[in-house]
Amino acid sequence: MVVLEYEVDIPRSAGNPTHTEAEWRAGDTAIHAKNIDDHYECFWYTDAEAHDFVTTLEEHASEHPDNISDLLQFTRSVNNGEEVIVENQADAELLANSSGTTYIECKLGPVTGYWKEESPIRNDLPDFPHLVHISGPYTSLESLRVLYHALAPDGLTVEDRDELIGAAINFIQQ
Hints:
- This protein is of the alpha+beta class.
- The chain has 4 helices and 9 strands.
- A 9-stranded antiparallel sheet has the order 1-2-3-4-9-8-7-5-6, with helices on one face.
- Helix 3 (141-151) packs antiparallel against helix 4 (158-172).
- The chain is globular, with a radius of gyration of 16 Å.
- The two termini are 22 Å apart.
- The relative contact order is 0.21.
């Protein structure tokens, strides 16, 4: 069962856009969404590893009806504490399988995403030590749905996955 943890409006300050954010939980799993002027941000904690992130994005790009595989671009990574510019998908796959990789970033058409080894801001979800963050224009919500289903924590029921991403997308579309 999905429960709304909080919903809050954050006023504009110091040139930052006004935004609304909310978080939902199902058991020990959480998803967080933000509406920020012309785009959304959504993130969740997961046990999906870096290679799961890379291969899921590659699969989604190749299966997308608009054939967006040419638009998939891995941009940077952090490996053993050093930032690495990723020049192609083969490099991304190599880094994703490296034990020293703690961050991988990509662009898939209008969507930007990253996978992060650990999330220091949330210690109350210890079974899900990784963070996946996706942002994009409101027209890219189907990509968000597909990526969430593929990269949600293992052990989460299909019904809870549907409810969590559904709640986030409904909130984003407000």
